[in-house]
Amino acid sequence: MDTSPAASDELVAITTRYEMPRAFVMLLRGCADLTSSGKLEEIFGEAAGSGCPVIVDLAGLAFGDEHLLGHLLAAREKGDLTLVGPLSRQFHQRMDVTGTVECFDVQPDLTTALAHLPG
Start and end of every STAS domain (predicted)? Predict the structure, then answer.
């Protein structure tokens, strides 16, 4: 079974900052793989520099590789990180196999994620 992304499934990343509550939110759509590692580096760097809790919405992510997982783990080590799901079957399985699924706070939607931020 081929679990690699199709060539046309480019990663789309949208970022925004919320003021009440303070948060840096990124929405990731499509496929996060080796071809998008530069984009991931840039947006996770921006998130780290924001000084805000970070929310990453993965509900529209079709494919996520070890580069994305590494960025998520690094962001978690630097501060508050919340994921928004549901996670794709493929990415949830990657997290499960690597033993990292329990490392993250996963909320069902952005509204709930924002409500759970420290206050």
Answer: 13-117
